[in-house]
Amino acid sequence: MLAKGSTRWANGRITDFSNEPLLKGKSILAARGDGGGKVWFGLYEGGLVVFDGNRFHAYSETDGLAGGSVNAVHHRRQSRCLDRKRSAG
Q1: What is the pTM of this model?
Q2: Which of 41, 42, 44, 70 is least surrounded by Cβ atoms within 10 Å, i.e. has the fewest?
Q3: Which of 24, 52, 29, 54 is nearest to 41 (CA)?
Q4: Distance from CA of residue 76 to its chain's centroid?
Q5: Is residue 15 part of a domain?
Q6: What tens digit of pLDDT does each residue of 21-64 get?
């Protein structure tokens, strides 16, 4: 999956998140719900963005993630999301 921006279908409505500052202009390589209502996005540019149903939050190397693109997001039963990184370069 490679997409610029994101949309959501919920409650019979489509919501466009393409202008969300944390996603705008970014290439989304992975998206996954965690079963708790959050959606996690892995970015080609590096980092994770999570939508909690109301707001977006970003996680990056300064939060302890490895550098490089995030090309997959996996959910574990403990409601934690893990990322798999593709090495930069």
Answers
A1: 0.73
A2: 44
A3: 29
A4: 16
A5: yes
A6: 998 888 889 888 888 888 899 999 999 999 998 899 999 999 98
